[in-house]
Amino acid sequence: MGKPRVAIFDFACCEGCQLQIVNLEEDILGLLGLVQPVEWREALSDRSDEYDIAIVEGSITRAEDEERLRGIRKRAKLLIALGACATIGGVNKLKNACDMEDVRRYVYGRAAAMPHLATEPTRALDEVVKVDYKIHGCPVSRRELGAVVRSLAMGVEPVIPNYPVCVECKLRETVCRYEYNEVCLGVVTRGGCNAPCPAGGGWCYGCRGLVDDPNVNAARDVMDKYGRTPADLQRRLALFNSPGAVSCPKS
Amino acid sequence: MSKILNVDVHHITRVEGHGNIRLRAVDGIVEKIEWQVPEAPRFFEAMVRGRSFEEVQTVMCRICGICSFAHSLAALKAVEKAVGIEVSDQTDRLRILAYGGEQLESHVLHVAYLVAPDLAGVNSVIPLVSSHPDVVAAAIRAHRLGNEWMEMLGGRRTHPVSFRPGGFGRWPSEGELRDLKARLEAVVPDLQKIADTVAALAHKLPRFERETEYVALSQPGVYTFYHGLIASTDSPERTPVEHFERVANEYVVGQSTAKWTRWHRETYAVGALSRFKLNSAFLHPLAARTARALGLDPSCCNPYMNSVAQVVEAVEVVEAGLEQIDILLTRGLRPEPLRKLHPKSGEGAGAVEAPRGILFHRYAFDAAGLCTEANVTIPTGQNHANIQKDFEALAPQILGRGEAEARLMLEMLVRAYDPCISCSTH
Ligand code: SF4
Ligand code: SF4
Ligand SMILES: [Fe+2]
Fold first, then answer.
1. Which atom of ligand 2 is nearest to the CA of A166?
2. Which CATH architecture group holds B44-418?
3. Within chain A, which residues score under 50 in pLDDT?
4. A16 in the Ramachandran plot: left (φ > 0), alpha (ψ -120 to 50) or beta?
């Protein structure tokens, strides 16, 4: 059996998740021993319609992109959603709190009605086609990305963590952001990133989506302990997880 | 029978984002030559409205994965101006230092991984791993260093978390700065090797000249990426960043979802070559020597030489970084705890030189500190019209070369600008 053929595609996004493949540095060479890249527009000029695994980055916001994604799904045996834009819609879903005509007018002014500037509410990939695996994060963790590709190349089921980010803060001995009187989403967000944001002096924005079964009581305890309300969490959650919690001002 | 030349590139490879090239010529006459951008707009300026001044940089850095530090810092400068936050000299120096890492990382990626395959006549960097193992290893080391430099000061290498209005959420230690200094010194031979290789291959860059307007930040005495006024080769005047809309004059065209810009003439160029043309007098010694060795001088009007200017800048940011670390360590690092910030209504603009050219952000906030207006003008957006004009000048010169070579020269021209196309549409 030959190496699985892998193709990488992107839709509306910043391509920061693909960049994490490049950021594997020397380790890419190891992955090249396991899989054969047959199409990756950002890095290679090779093209192919024959692939086993499609890795897809970005969100769907236009009819033409939906059609292209369906074509990719048809050709791929496995489809992996790469990064928050693909797994949950990412920051692109902030747009969904707004009126589509209004966002077009706000950005393009008098030219807004031109047909090539059309847009629809943002959708994650699994709102359009079947997704087999999700690699979470904005951007994805390159360690996890490497692990998932390695597992699939060897025919092993990849393990996607399902515990909150707080677990990783405790392991790294990071001082909790609530101690600085800040609101952090690590209490309800899926870990696996090794909690770089609180360690780097920021807070968790929930880019990996919620854990499957958020422990609401634990979250409420944290809120109570630090005098915070669920509304504080809601506001912050809106960035990656709940479009509509912040309403978009009309221009 | 008439002789027809068609070049039809759908989604050009080895660039960030989606662009198409269309050339059609009949009997030696160009009928159509177009640089098209069909990228899906994401509407960042519309969707950041309503977010707090404390998280604008977190949202807006997602415009671009390859220049997220540039977006984060331009946003912070605009926000701090709008809300009236002053940062210390130390914070300012640390941000400038952090930002050097992104220039190094991005330039090495572009030159070694995206442009070099064209010079070697291959499809990607993968075959170069075995054909040019030493220089690829040097490029990987330099790229890794750029990344780890960013991670040390920004908390992450893509979409930084340590940069916050007023300062840093996490302070580096003096030990970390000393470690970075040693690593910057150690990367110099790697950059030298990359420069030598580029010098040996530079004759493969097409000899094509088209003089245009070149725009970049300029600051007396500094080869600047961070502070300064807006300068142009077309005018001795310097424009404050507050008035960036007077420079960019954005407009919408049918062939692109990214807006185009124009200033003193039909189009202008931004990026490493523009910076070099305006600021090369202020390069550090080794960077200046590298420029001479590469045959780059400020009169150059060959857009393909932008990649060569990036090699010079990779050396420049390392030298400037070493100098900055020395200043910080001599003065002694004094960590500044984050101040409690108070929302305030106001409006402000900020600019930085992203690896691929000058970048502008503007925001307005209400009394609760929520964003009410946003406007962002992207380097690649400022280059699109200029690429179109280059195409129009280049196409008639390459009609006799056959489809494959014409196609390669057009693709290489787009790549030379190091475009961030999804960023330009945002
Ligand atoms: S998930 Fe984040 S890093 Fe990845 S493509 Fe989307 S915006 Fe960029
Ligand atoms: S709330 Fe945030 S900072 Fe605190 S432990 Fe959880 S993830 Fe870490
Ligand atoms: Fe814009």
1. 6
2. Orthogonal Bundle (1.10)
3. 245
4. alpha
